[in-house]
Design goal:
The chain is of the alpha+beta class and 132 residues long. The chain has 5 helices and 6 strands.
């Protein structure tokens, strides 16, 4: 079974310019189906069977360390943004992989590079155990 971090490494180069495409590819590699763009994905992961971690970065990193697919997301108009949280330190910000629409995302970098300082406090986290 591919781990979330292995899937992130494998998919980043192809999807580094598309956050939702990156997340969908990583999710598929670990047996979870996601569809749509970032805002639609956030709507999906915001419901059961996904675990709602709210804005608790420590909890998000803990779930990532247990092997869960952990999504960080923030809706926006017209396009939100999503990242995949990976295990490691959560202070001051958790580490993640993400693509960036019309640019290049980052791999294994802290999420303060993914959102503005003002938006970081609004980011929500969601977790689901990959399918075996």
């Amino acid at each position: 079974m591919t781990t979330v971090k292995e899937a992130c490494e494998a998919r980043w180069e192809t999807w580094k310019a598309d956050c939702s495409g990156f997340l969908k590819a990583v999710a598929a590699d670990v047996g979870i189906e996601l569809t749509g763009q970032a805002n639609a994905i956030i709507d999906t992961v915001g419901t059961a069977p996904w675990v709602q971690l709210e804005s608790d970065a420590d909890c998000a990193v803990s779930y990532a360390g247990m092997g869960y697919l952990v999504v960080a997301g923030l809706k926006a108009n017209p396009n939100g943004h999503v990242c995949v949280i990976v295990s490691g330190a959560s202070k001051p910000y958790p580490s993640a992989y993400w693509g960036r629409l019309n640019a290049v995302g980052k791999k294994n970098a802290t999420i303060n590079w993914a959102w503005t300082h003002a938006d970081l406090a609004k980011v929500q986290y969601y977790a689901m155990m990959p399918k075996s």
